Amino acid sequence: MSNNLFDFGMIGLGVMGQNLLLNMADHGFSVIGFDKDGAKNAALEAAATPGTTVKGVPELEDMVQQLKTPRRLIMLVPAGKPVDDVIESLIPLLEKGDIVIDGGNSHYTDTLRRVEYLKETGINFMGMGVSGGEQGARSGPSMMPGGNEEAYEHIKPVLESIAAKVDGVACVDYLGKGGAGHYVKMVHNGIEYAIMQLISESYAILKHGGLTNTQLHEAFKSWNEGDLQSFLVEITADIFLQKDDKTDADLVDVISDKAGSKGTGKWTSQDSMELPVAVPVIDTAVAMRTLSGYKDERVQAAAIYTSEHSDLSESQEELVKLVHDALYFATILSYTQGLAMLSQASTYLKMDIPMPKVVSVWRGGCIIRSSLLETFSKAYNKNAELSNILLNEDVASLVKSVEGNMRSTVALAAKSGIPAGGFMSALSYFDAYRTERMPTNLIQAQRDYFGAHTYQRIDIPGTFHTEWGQN
Q: Do 368 and 400 sit in the same domain of this protein?
């Protein structure tokens, strides 16, 4: 049809949707967006780079009719019922072979359901995680698509052109079957929760040690120029310099300590238990955000449980070094737990997630991009079936190099009454993982004692039960 002019369509022209479309247009693709809000359609066209082909329309059918076949379109609408509503609106308008991508933060089980639901229509439905925020969407996001691999080949040229690039490699790739794209993004967000919690604990310890916001800026800026180089450390350094436009204070000092969340970290924590895989740093990060909401109770408890905590005797220079090493150690452990979860889910949920590609996609554009991912990438390229990156020699050597200062930092926080659950859970996970014989033999004895749950022995094969207390 002569009016099939556009290469790609977008449903939902909020900031993310608009910026992704404009990014595509800047790379030579003709794009069309749909939003019921006429102002958003006008804003899309007004923001287009001169000479690019960009159009906004207020009718869904109008957009679909103007797409080349097989039609390729992304929806960026709130997760849940809105996604199902859009799908129902699209079904009568699309044809077999068309490709619909959910680029929002949907739960992977919803994505699986939608893939199956649309199979009989012949419409290819894909879930795709997008990370990098509105700036990333405009200039180069990290994207995590999963679903039908054949359908991915049709969208690959567009996605590779707009993705962030690291060493010339696009931060997008096919990441597995079914709901794999959204599963990878969910775990990405869980790791994000964990690292943000660890950074906040680093801030708490350094602030307790007397560092000013200017000194905190210098510490984080220096860290970002070294082995802790990452997007989250970089923006943290910037935050300490931001002045409040309403007072003379630094902005960070007037922001409430009640944290918000969108729920994706909680999903990671919940779904890890279904596998099961241990992700205690992520679990702790979720719990700490919940605890932050108990502000009134925390104020009351602070008055009840006043106590003389020991001051930090270390020099500021020594403290900065200790906390740097603790953050480095715990950050590695955060990635360790998230990647172990993906490795297990790949097999258990039959998603065939290619681990080397996951860490490659995360190297640029996304919120958890970090120089550490280069090390992890080498580890997976050496052994794509690696169940836990702590078993890689290069990673092990990094962890060992800062283990002592990690222990010292946790001890300092505990003695000083500074809540550092992220650091503590990272160290506990590490100690448990490297312990050849854990004390859970006692738990097995207890379970058999009160519930006849049986146990296994270390010297004889088989399953056993004992009538306890008969001696």
A: yes
Q: Decide if 72 contacts 99 (C-beta within 8 A).
A: yes
Does residue 327 lie in a domain region?
yes
Closest among 56, 122, 43, 118 to 83, alpha carbons compared? 118
Which of these is catalytic: 177, 192, 201, 266? 192
Q: Determine which helix (DSSP H) or strand (DSSP E) holds 85, and give its type and residue range.
A: helix 81-90
- CATH code of the domain containing 342: 1.10.1040.10
Q: Say if residue 242 is in the same domain as residue 284.
A: yes
How many residues belong to the chain?
471
H or E element in which residue 9 lies:
strand 8-11
CB neighbours (10 Å) of residue 460? 7
DSSP state of 309: P
Annotated catalytic residue 297? no
**Residue 212 has which token pair?**
């000013």
**Structural domain includes residue 443:** no
Question: To the nearest 5 percent, what fractions of the chain are helix, strand and coil?
Answer: 55, 10, 35
Q: Give the mean pLDDT of 118-139.
A: 93
For position 306, what pLDDT does the model report? 87
Range of the domain at 251: 185-433
Distances in Å between the alpha carbon of 5 and those of 52, 73, 93?
13, 14, 17
Helix axes 180-208, 421-433, angle to 10 degrees: 120
Q: Name the E strands within 22-178.
A: 31-34, 54-57, 72-75, 99-102, 124-131, 142-146, 165-166, 169-170
Indicate the residue among 128, 152, 174 that finishes a domain: 174
Q: Is 185 a catalytic residue?
A: yes
120 plus 197 within the same structural domain: no
Rounded Cα–Cα distance for residues 159 and 174 (Å): 11
Scanning 349-462, the segments in alpha helix (DSSP H) are 355-361, 372-382, 393-416, 421-433, 440-451
Among residues 185, 201, 266, 357, which one is catalytic?
Answer: 185
Burial class (CB in 10 A: 0-12, 13-18, 19+), 8: buried
Q: Is residue 286 part of a domain?
A: yes
- Report pTM: 0.94
What average pLDDT does range 14-36 have in this prediction? 95
* Domain at 154, CATH number: 3.40.50.720
Domain tally, the chain:
2
Last residue of a domain, one of 174, 194, 216: 174
What is the residue type of 65?
Q
Cα distance between residue 146 and residue 179, in whole Å: 6
Residues 383 and 356 in one domain: yes
Q: Is there a domain that residue 194 lies in?
A: yes
Domain shared by 169 and 189, yes or no? no
Residue range 374-410, pLDDT digits in tens = 999 999 999 999 999 999 999 999 999 999 999 999 9
User: Is residue 213 domain-shared with residue 361, that is, in the same domain?
Assistant: yes
Please state the φ and ψ torsions of residue 62, each to the nearest 5 degrees.
-65, -40
